Amino acid sequence: MCGLAGVLCRVPGMTGAQYAPVVARMCQRIAHRGPDDEGIWHDGPICLGSRRLAIQDLSPAGHMPMVDPSGRYVLAYNGELYNAPELRRELEARGVRFRSTGDTEVLLHSLIAWGEAVLPRLAGILAFAFWDSERRELWLVRDHLGVKPLYYLELGDILLFASEIKALIPEHPDPRVDDLSILQWSLYRNLDFPDRKSLVRGIESVLPGEIVKIVNGVRQHRFYFRPPTAVDATAYRRAETLTAQALAEEIEDTLATVVREQLVSDVPVGTLLSGGLDSSLLTALAARYRSDLTAFHVSVAGFPDHDERPYAEALCRRKGLTFVTMRLDGGAFRAALARTVWLSDLPLTHPNSVAYHLISRVVREHGVIVALAGEGADELFGGYAWAYRRRRRLQRLRPWLDKIPPLIREGLALLIYAEAELPVTSIRFRELMPPTVLMLDRFARREWLETCIEAYGFVDREQDREVLGAMLADLGDFLSPLLRRLDRMSMGASVECRVPYLDPRLVARAVNLPLDYKLGRHADKWILKQVALRHMPKELVVRKKMGFPLPLWQWTRPYVRPDFFSDGFLETHLGFKRSGITRLVARGERWVQALFGLITLEIWGRLFLMGRTLAEVEAWLASFEPKPHAPTFN
Fold this sequence. Notes:
Elements: E1 2-9, H1 20-29, E2 37-43, E3 46-52, E4 66-67, E5 73-81, H2 84-93, H3 103-114, E6 124-132, E7 137-142, E8 151-155, E9 158-162, H4 165-168, H5 179-188, E10 203-205, E11 210-215, E12 218-223, H6 233-241, H7 244-262, E13 269-272, H8 277-289, E14 294-300, H9 309-319, E15 322-328, H10 330-335, H11 337-344, H12 353-365, E16 370-372, H13 377-381, H14 385-401, H15 406-419, H16 429-440, H17 444-455, H18 462-474, H19 479-491, E17 496-498, H20 504-510, H21 526-532, H22 538-541, H23 552-556, H24 569-572, H25 578-586, H26 592-608, H27 614-622
Helix pairs in contact: 2-3, 7-20, 7-21, 11-26, 11-27, 12-19, 14-18, 17-18
C-alpha cells in the first residue's frame, strides 16, 4: 500500500530526468501514504516516483518503482492484490522466476504476461502506473470500484499524475475552481462519480474500473469493469432455484474466503469495529483465522444514543479479542477538522471522516498497520432502508399517487416547497427545478441509474428491477465518497484499510441475488443477517441500524457565526454575499448539514487555493474555540 507520482513528457527532446525534482516534491506531499521507503526512477520521457507502506515482503526486494529483469517494464503500484498466490502459481508454471515474496512483482509479471486481459482477474484494491519502454506506452489503472485513487493533470507537453490531488495542485500554474464542478458538489456532495473532473480545473481522475493509456502522447480511455457487467441472468436464475439456506452458505463461504485472504500480511492486522452488523461480522469471521486481532472502536462522548460501544465490546469479549476504544468529543473533532479536509482533497461529504482519521491514528499508535473495514455491504445487500425499502414502497404506491386530484397534489407541493423555504411563487418553479438539477449534472446520474436498471431487464417484476438497479447504481455513485473517506483518512495515518465486502467475487454473488434476499419481509440485509447469526448472538444481529451519526450541531457551534467566513474563500473566490451567509448562519441549526458543507468548503479553499498552510488554517480555526471562563472573586 503506497502512494505514487510521475511525469510523462509527450514531445521529442524532453526527458523524464529533468522532472525528477518535480516527482520528488509530489511524492513528499503524499509521504503519509508511504513512510517506509521512497523511490524515483526515470528513463527516456518518463519519471516515476513511489512512497511505500510495506505490507508484504518488508525487505528491499519490494522497492518501487519496480523494474522487470529485462529493464523494459516498470511498475509504480498502490494497493494489495489478494489473489496474488493464484497468479504467482500460474506465472511460475510459465517459467517466471520471482525475486520477492510480495504482490508487487506478481502484478508486474501478470501485466507483462497477459496485458490488459488480466485486469478483470485482479482481486484487490489497487491503482498503478505501468510503463513499457519499448512501446513508449503508459497505463494508468484503478481497481474495479475505485477503492484506491489516481489523478492526472495535462500541462501542455507534459502529463503529471499522482495518488492525491494535493500532490498536483502546487505544480499547477493556474489552479482555479471548476465552476460546473462546484455546482455539482453543492447538489450531490460527490465529485468522485460520475465525472472525471475534480474541483480544481484541469485535474481529473482515472475512473473506477478504467485503464487510461497514453500512446504517442494521446490519452485513450477504456473500462475493463463496470458494475452492470457483473449482473448475470444465468447466475440470478440459479439463485432463484436455491433455498435460502443454500444461498446463505454460498455467501458465507465466499465472504470467509475473502476475509481469510485479506488477513494475509507481514505486519499486524486489526479491524475497524463500529458495533454494527457489517464490521461485526467481518470481525467475527476474522477471529476464526487469527487470534491476535485488535478491534478498534470510536465512542461518541456524551451522546449515548450515537454510541454502539456496548455491542462492539460484547462481541470482542465473546471472541476473546483485544478491544481498543477512542472517545471522540467536540474539541477533538474541531482540532482535527482542518487536517481531515486537507487529507480528503475535497470539502467533507461525511462529518464522520474526522472520526475515521482519528481512529486510524490510534490504530497506527498501537502498532497495527492493516485494518479490515465494512464498506460496501449496505449497497450490496440492501442496508439503506431510507433508500431501498422506501423506493420499493414508492413503486407500490405510484399507481395510487397518480389518482390524487391535481389540485390536491398542487397544494401538497406548495406546502413542501414552503417548508423548505424555496420560492414557490416563482412562475412554474416546481416544473423547472427537477430538469435544472438534471441539467447541472448533465443527466449523467439519471443515465447511470437507467443503465443499472436495464442490467436487470430479465427480472420479471418491475418493482424489483427498479430497486435492484438503484442498489447497483450506488456501487458507482453513493459508495464513491465513502471509499474516498476510508482511503484518505486511513492512509493519512499510514494505515491500510481493506474492504472484504467489495472483493469482485463477493460483488458478483451479491448483485445476482433476488431482491427478497436483501430486503426481506421483516429485515433489511436479510441474507447477511442469516450468515451473521451463525457467528454472533441474536441480540447483536437483530437490532435497529444506527449508522455513524455525530452531534454535528453541538460540535460545530463555535464556527456558526458570520465572521467565520469574512474575507475568506467563499467571499473572495466564489463571490458569496455576506448577507446571504448571515441568513444561513441564523438558520444554522435547521440547515446544519448545508452549513457544515460551507464550513469545510471554506477550509478547503483556504488550504488549496488561497495558499494557506495547514498550520495557519489550524490556528485560524483555534481562534474560534470557546475561551475558558475566568474565576470570579467576591
